[in-house]
């Protein structure tokens, strides 16, 4: 049985500890954070399958943390808050949360909400999708078929071009230096790889961009490297 990782983020440590007890009884692995910044750091270091997020926290509150997470991830997020007004619940959902439960909560209700979100995530959402298809705008990379499509139409890439594009799409928004691209794709230490990488980048742009001189997806960050733009 696969064990799922749940990130619990609340500045009240007693609540985090109590939730951890409930979740461990259901064979979930718990990762703890006590403010939004710690939650974002935990997401960078761990594979998280669901997030329980408090609203009122120091440094970075739960709503703004949710907004930042939604820029790149579709992990289920359940907001935990002492606020009970309907407008607060709607606000949380508008910020990108999947569900909302008010404190104090019934542990059985919390577990039921978690299980519901996990079923949706594992059967319809990104656990399956994440391993198969990466979608950014109209650009798609199918890792099973080793195929790239733009607007639904397949394009032909060499194995090296595909490797570069996969690296950048899997890390959309992250800038890679020429050395990092070379060492990741060619699997060897770089030695003056500028021309080699830049030629491949140009060819990729010619294939995926409507106007390669004004690229929508594959952007240069002058003096640093290249990235695939996030949408």
List keywords for this structure.
single chain, 231 residues, alpha/beta, Rossmann fold, Arc Repressor Mutant, subunit A, 2 domains, 5-stranded parallel beta sheet, 4-stranded antiparallel beta sheet, elongated
Secondary-structure blueprint:
Layout lengths: L4 E5 L3 H13 L3 E5 L2 H10 L4 E5 L7 H9 L6 E5 L4 H9 L4 E4 L4 H18 L1 H7 E4 L2 E4 L4 E4 L2 E3 L3 H12 L7 H9 L7 H15 L9 E4 L3 E4 L3
Helix pairs in contact: 2-3, 5-6, 7-8, 7-9, 8-9
Account of the protein in words:
- The protein is α/β, with parallel strands linked by helices and 231 residues long.
- It has two domains: 120 residues, 3-Layer(aba) Sandwich (Rossmann fold), CATH 3.40.50.2300; 98 residues, Orthogonal Bundle (Arc Repressor Mutant, subunit A), CATH 1.10.10.
- It is built from nine helices and eleven strands.
- It has a five-stranded parallel sheet with strand order 2-1-3-4-5, sandwiched between helices. It has a four-stranded antiparallel sheet with strand order 6-7-8-9. A two-stranded antiparallel ribbon has the order 10-11.
- Helix 5 runs parallel beside helix 6, helix 7 packs across helix 8 and helix 8 packs across helix 9.
- The longest helix is centred in the middle third of the chain and has 18 residues.
